[in-house]
Amino acid sequence: MRIVRSIQALLVVSLLLHGCAFSRGTLGDDVKTEVLTAIQKGITTKIEVVNLLGAPDRLVQLNGRDVFHYYRYDAKAGSLLLIILNFTRLSIKSDDVFIIVNREGIVEDVLASKRTESLGFRFWPFGE
User: Fold this and answer.
1) Residues with Cβ < 8 Å from 86, sequence gap 6 or more?
2) What does the alpha-carbon distance between residue 89 and residue 33 come to, in Å, rounded to a whole number?
3) CATH code of 86's domain
4) Beta strands in the chain (DSSP E)
5) Contact in structure between 48 and 60 (CB atoms under 8 Å)
6) Using CA atoms, how far apart are residues 56 and 53, in angstroms rounded to an integer?
7) What is the pLDDT of residues 9-53, one digit of tens each?
8) Domain that holds residue 54
């Protein structure tokens, strides 16, 4: 009888000591669409790009061209916290801007993707 009461008490305590947690984090600066539209292929210079967007997060040289990479990562996590077992679901998406500058220092191309707006919290750890 004493063992049964101990197990019942342990079960009640374990049910009371669980919880949920939500967290969110970002890395990098948001690149505004208005700023990207100000960058014109064949006209805007490398100096103007740096004045508009700041220093790139990553700079790659490719076939004599400079590729400026600006990024922003957004992460959201939902967690189910239990005494013995914890579940966490982490979702990460990024916004990326690649600006290709030719040897003369003129913008050759601008590639951009914005995916962080559709990032939502996913709580259940087993699938969608």
Assistant:
1) 79, 80
2) 30
3) 3.30.1450
4) 19-27, 58-62, 65-81, 86-101, 107-114
5) no
6) 8
7) 776 766 666 677 778 888 888 888 888 899 999 999 999 999 999
8) 18-118
